[in-house]
Each structure stands twice: as structure tokens, then as C-alpha cells.
Amino acid sequence: MKSYQALDWLCTLIAVLDEQGCVCFANAALENALGQSRRTMDGSEFAVCFAEPALLEKALSGARDNDFAALRFEASLLRQGQDALPVHVTVSLMEPESQVLVEMWPLEQQARQDREERLREQAQANKELIRNLAHEIKNPLGGIRGAAQLLQMDLDSPELREYTTVIVHEADRLQALVDRLLAPHRHPHEVGDVNIHQVCERVRSLVLIEYPQGLSIARDYDISIPEFRGDSAQLIQALLNIVQNAAQALHRHIAAGDAQITLKTRVARQVTLGKQRYRLALELHVIDNGPGVPDAIKERIFYPLVSGRDGGSGLGLTLAQTFVQRHHGLIECDSQPGRTDFRILIPLP
């Protein structure tokens, strides 16, 4: 067992099998993927974990007969309570122990890492674009507002003053939008000890004050999650933006009295974020029973000024992603009609 402990640090799924195809060792990544402990798998036949056991059995037979040095194929791993996991499998014989090493790479993992990289690159590009655009808008905006106020003082006609009032009002509205665009870059990152459940409870109480009738916010907490270093104010704002978005999407359900949001916390193991591997990470889900994110914007919901509802500024999720990325984390979204799941991942110590 001790000789295999280093395999726990790998993000690939690994099982060491004996000559009969029974599990001698399963690393932490495989435990997490299958939803089973290595103690449960120890001594069991590993082929039953595959949707097509014959594929692995044939590979094991070839390894025992020295038909190949390594055999590669694609298969699907069965997971408890989840869909099967497509994997690329490599089977090779370990010398001189005559044990078989089975390495598996989730096909979805590479796609997920590529998606994370795109999100990070897009967030960085958005940050530079927003900062530059906001500063370019701000200076002439002050001049327009000041000129409208001066003109208003010289006008005697109430009808003409009404026009200058509109100019001032719209300039103020645009100024507020610019301030929101610049908000994440103005405030320093104030680090302290963060209890994620205190963050959740603060957000829950704020949203329930805003929606006292027709909305239920359920808790599903793992209270064993440790405190970590971070900025509580930024995390409260990030989570508040996501939960408020969910509540706004649930307006019909709120009117019907069956709107449901769930705040769910878990510990994820062996998580890769930004090409860096973390042993533990916070996994915070915001799940709602609303209509889902429209397909037309599903791939762009974290872009600035992209909104799925009339009157939305399209900044809430952009700012949430920025604040979470300041904690070396990431927000992902999985949405279909009847269930939308925003997942926040943040490394834990």
C-alpha cells in the first residue's frame, strides 16, 4: 500500500490489479470519480466498474499472456448515482510484481480544462477591455452632464428644461454603470479567515428579505469544510449576484409559490484549477428549479453586458467570476429547463 501512495497525487484515475483482475490499490482520483472508497473496492473485481466489462477482461488476458506492453482503448466507468464517465484507458503489466496497472483519463476532464482556460483568458481580456472602456466613457460623460446643467440654468422654458433633465438623468445612469464596471478593480483584496457557511447564511437572509413570499432557499451544508483565507465581502457579493440572478429567473415560480433554490457545499478532492492541482477544494452549488439559461447565451453568460432578462445589466455574473478568480477559483454553470446549477470551486488549505 505504501509503495503506491505517490499515485494519490496524480489527477489520472489509477487502479492496480492482481493477476485475477481484483483491485489491490485505487488512488484518490479514482475514489472521487466512482464515488467509492478504496476500502470498498479492495479485493473486488474491477471489470464490474465498466459499462462493458469484457473490454477490460480482454485487456487483462492479453497483459497476462504478454501479448502487448500496453493496450489502449476507450470505455465508460459506472458511477454511483451519476451518469457513466467516458474514459481513455491504458492497461500495462507491472514488472516484476506481475500486477496490472490500469490508467484512465476522463474524456470530459480535458474538455473541462480547455473550457476553464478559455474562461480565464476571456476574463482577463474582459478586465482590460472594461477598464479601458470605462475610463474612456467617464471623462466625456462628466463634460456632457456639466454642460447640460449649465444649459438648464439658462433656459426659461419648462419644456426645454425637461430635455436637459433627461440628459442629466441618463448621464447619471451611465455613470452608475461605469462605476459598477470599475468596482472590482477599485477595491483591494482584503484577506481574512472565511467561513463559507457564514457567507451562505448572509446571502440567504438578504435574498429572503427581498423575496419573503413564494421562494424557498434550502441548505445542504457539509459542516466539516474548514475555514480558508479569502475576502468575505467579495465572496458574499459573488454569491449574492448568483442567488439574485436565480431568484429573478424564478419570478413565475415565485408567483406560483413553488420557487426553490438550494445552497449546497461539499469538499472536492484532487481538483485541477488553472493548470494547478489541489488536494482539496470547496464546491459550492447554487441550484434552482427555474427555466434554465437560454441556449443563445449559455456559452456567454460570464461575458460583460450579456443578460438573459429584460432590464438586466449583464454585470452580475461577470463580477462574480472576477471575485471568485481572485481566490484562484472558478464558477461553472450546468443548465437545463427545470434545473440550473452554478458551481463555485475554490482551493482549500
TrEMBL record:
SUPFAM superfamilies: ATPase domain of HSP90 chaperone/DNA topoisomerase II/histidine kinase (SSF55874), Homodimeric domain of signal transducing histidine kinase (SSF47384), PYP-like sensor domain (PAS domain) (SSF55785). Keywords: ATP-binding, Kinase, Nucleotide-binding, Phosphoprotein, Transferase, Two-component regulatory system. Signal peptide: none annotated. SMART domains: HATPase_c, HisKA. It comes from the Bacteria. It catalyses: ATP + protein L-histidine = ADP + protein N-phospho-L-histidine. NCBIfam families: PRK11073.1. This is histidine kinase. It comes from Comamonas terrae. The gene is glnL.
